Amino acid sequence: GAGVSQSPSNKVTEKGKDVELRCDPISGHTALYWYRQSLGQGLEFLIYFQGNSAPDKSGLPSDRFSAERTGGSVSTLTIQRTQQEDSAVYLCATLLAEATDTQYFGPGTRLTVL
Amino acid sequence: GENVEQHPSTLSVQEGDSAVIKCTYSDSASNYFPWYKQELGKRPQLIIDIRSNVGEKKDQRIAVTLNKTAKHFSLHITETQPEDSAVYFCAASIRASGTYKYIFGTGTRLKVLA
Fold it and tell me: What residues of chain B lie within 8 A of the CB of A59, using their CB?
């Protein structure tokens, strides 16, 4: 595809349920980032994948959050036992490392935990 | 730790006036400074960026200046128009050892009054 895509666009879940959010990067982009944006707030860094290196997980807020990137392409962010404070827009961004410093963002997944 | 401060958090200007948003970063190793515009309900979009070997860059009505000594950079929008109304984010990025780490500011909500 032409840009970064994310699915689902909206997700409503009940407190305590697990959710999976998906990011499809621009083809060939080797770096992938997950951010969380709460209503009216800035971009909170969660996790960063770079090629085959170990991911930088320093932004994950708790052990309920995890992410993986299979085959250097698609990434899945998993939130276990969701809480109401997890409600936010989750944004994925990718970058073609070695060629540019520019991140390209996906449209985000709006997560609502009831 | 690394930090980017952004001011003001909100800014209202009359159509046709100029708007200035300022950011300060803490890590002197930062070498790339993008600005993103996020319209309501949409993804952040890169509008301009500057690298550490340049002091100023201009693209039509928008310009960015960088003062490495003071570790601050600014976004300038001239002849503002209603469609400039959005949230603007600055970021500081460090490119080191093949990795790209971004720290975002907290955002500025710009309102251009017609």
Answer: none
- Residue reference for tokens 């959010």: A21
- Residue written as token pair 């803490």: B26
Asked whether the beta carbons of residue A43 and residue B43 sit closer than 8 angstroms, the reply is: no
DSSP code, position B54: -
User: Residue type at B35?
Assistant: W
Token pair for B28? 């002197």
CA distance B21 to chain A (A): 15
CA distance B105 to chain A (A): 7
A98 pLDDT band, cuts 50/70/90, is: low
What is the mean pLDDT, run by run of 10 residues, along chain B of 114 residues? 89 97 94 93 92 90 96 97 96 78 92 94
- All residues of chain B having their beta carbon less than 8 Å from the beta carbon of residue A33 are 102
Residues 6+ apart with CB under 8 A from A66: A60, A77, A78, A80
Q: Are strands B99-104 and B86-96 parallel, antiparallel or unpaired?
A: antiparallel
